[in-house]
Design brief:
2 copies of one chain form a homodimer. By secondary structure, chain A is an alpha+beta fold. Chain A has 2 domains: 303 residues, Bira Bifunctional Protein, Domain 2 (BirA Bifunctional Protein, domain 2, 2-Layer Sandwich), CATH 3.30.930.10; 89 residues, Rossmann fold. Chain A is built from 14 helices and 16 strands. An 8-stranded mixed beta sheet of chain A has the order 1-5-6-11-10-9-7-8. A 5-stranded mixed beta sheet of chain A has the order 13-12-14-15-16, with helices on both faces. Chain A is elongated and about 95 Å long. At the A-B interface, α1, β1, β5, α4 and α9 of A face α1, β1, β5, α4 and α9 of B.
Amino acid sequence: MYPQDKALQDFLFETLKNVAVLFGFASYDGPILEDIQIYLNKTSKELVEKQTFQVQDKKDQTLILRPEMTPTLARMIAKKAGELTFPLRLFNLGLRFRYEAPQKGREREFYQADFDLLGSAYVLADMEILAVAIAIFLSLGASKNDFILYLNSRSFMEQKLEGFGIGKKDMKTILNLIDKQDKIDEPTFMKLLQEVGIGSSVINDLQSFLTKPLSPAADPYFTRLFSYLKNYGIDSYCQINPNIVRGLDYYTGLVFEVKEKGGTMRALLGGGRYDNLVSSFDSKLSIPGVGFATSDVVLMEFLKEKGLIPKVKPNTSQVLITVLGEDMVPSCVEIAKLLRSNGISCELYPSSNRKLDKQLKYADRQNIPFAIILGPEETQKGIVKVKDMKTREQKEVKKEEVVKILKS
Amino acid sequence: MYPQDKALQDFLFETLKNVAVLFGFASYDGPILEDIQIYLNKTSKELVEKQTFQVQDKKDQTLILRPEMTPTLARMIAKKAGELTFPLRLFNLGLRFRYEAPQKGREREFYQADFDLLGSAYVLADMEILAVAIAIFLSLGASKNDFILYLNSRSFMEQKLEGFGIGKKDMKTILNLIDKQDKIDEPTFMKLLQEVGIGSSVINDLQSFLTKPLSPAADPYFTRLFSYLKNYGIDSYCQINPNIVRGLDYYTGLVFEVKEKGGTMRALLGGGRYDNLVSSFDSKLSIPGVGFATSDVVLMEFLKEKGLIPKVKPNTSQVLITVLGEDMVPSCVEIAKLLRSNGISCELYPSSNRKLDKQLKYADRQNIPFAIILGPEETQKGIVKVKDMKTREQKEVKKEEVVKILKS
């Protein structure tokens, strides 16, 4: 990741951090190398066994390179629950790893931003989390035509499936199949449902349910959530979609995904409510939570596809101090010291035998806006020349006034 | 890393980034999982074999969790040398991993900041790098009494050792022994020197050389470097020390370390000149470089020991919007929307059945400076109450003036 790409990543990171600040989320972090135990039973087994990099530490414990942040967060919350103040709004921006062959939009190492609101089971917390998700896309310059937030509820789905006659024991399997629908074709989906052992009338009911749009009136939870979303003015970004169930086992209520409108079906952001996750680390604790994650890789692809990549440039000095011969070094070094101690970023050209035009050409290529020229003649007069690299104008300035001129 | 510690780490990261900006260094990054090949022959074998975490990717290639950044940087420079503009100032702040039992000041995962100046073999580039190193400590609030920068030159040392009669074949071994001196006692050091097969008169010469201080007059390189350091006003932070050689094989000239004055002997920062590293990736290229690295773990310990830990607090909202009953939610949500769209960070208390004093207590505990109180009475009057949590004063403010009041 060369400076130009890094500058773009930094723009994305700054945007995410600014949203965190605006919504009152505090930064935290955890280890990259995590004990494998915290993922087992909490994340889908597939993710742990097939999709993570594993290493042994010096005590022969198995560590994995964290594939996601939520289990780490739940462990951390469980450990210090007594000292923390709830409701708690937490933000992490950090590396995640997945053991897979790299493909478009899926890298083996990438950054994820996680936003979590802990300590409230109230619908208003769900609305706040959805507002954060939408704020990210709006801050990145996207509009209603670019993205949509699909949402659903795990508890609503479980009720619904029960109503169709699906028993508790098949619930998880059926929800996982619904989650995988967009990766398989219709006949395969049907075949897999049959294999679970569900009757064809139940399959028909399920099929027709999954293909029909749902209105907020479908469930009191949705009704209330949508009234809050409407109060916030973001209901039109959201749509209830019975096909959204999310792959992770720990979700209990709201589940949601942001998808690109008219683009790939890959989720740009995903999350939900996980009311029992903290208690799985300490059964005496009952700390509900709701949150989501999004990654730099998918967001960057989204921005590219929508033509939303901003013009950013890598950091460069404000001033190049040219060095015209060994004799001039002391004066040049003093100017560098003077500028930096006044907060003006600058660099000394690190060669004394390169001609002035070569040095100025370097300033041009690096987009450095000003150059200071300081030869024997200037030293004698007690001045320096300040050259504006854009206009090519140069001014003779008294040494002691350089800072003032450059700051104006 | 809970919010309080993370806020402290963020302060450190910001300080490092600000120094990078001031000296014109552009940010870059590389992968955490690196091909093991780029370390072999370039780093000490010990580091690669014993001190790194290794994983296999899906193509059965061995990857290691990067223990340092310089080989990645050299590979990246070699790959795009034709497109890059030199001299090039590069900065990375990222994770590094070491396979070792965690101990004080040495964690298995930590952040390192790397500063590198590529494309100049000139002494002024060495001075600039040393100025950056010193600027970091001064920016962190440290003074001359807290730290010292020891420097030496690999080429000077090689000449010197040759002068004592040490042959080319023993050079690397002897330099490595000098590097390890502070971890072993005097008799062990002597014994190990004898084991290399060096005569006792040579050992005596070496011993007496290593224990005597060196002045800048010892070598023309030092003379010139110190004259530049003096021009910059930082010569008094620096001292030539023949015992500093650094452990990595790729250094060719300047080597240096910052150490705590009157504290542990552990280096707080270390680096040097590596003029042949890029050509080891592409023999047609000759791109000299000089740089250093420092880590969050050692810097944080240094700040603690010197009482330089600043008061920082995790991010919190500027305003808590209290929610006094389900009926009030629409008005509260509208206020949240209004504040955020005006750049004022705020949060909705995510419960409607908690008493006002409980909600205000939460604002106190989270250090949230303002609370907005909005009950049925206020709604009727078209106002909100803005409470200053420090002074406990509260003002009645018209809804449309809330933003103005909070921004003033």
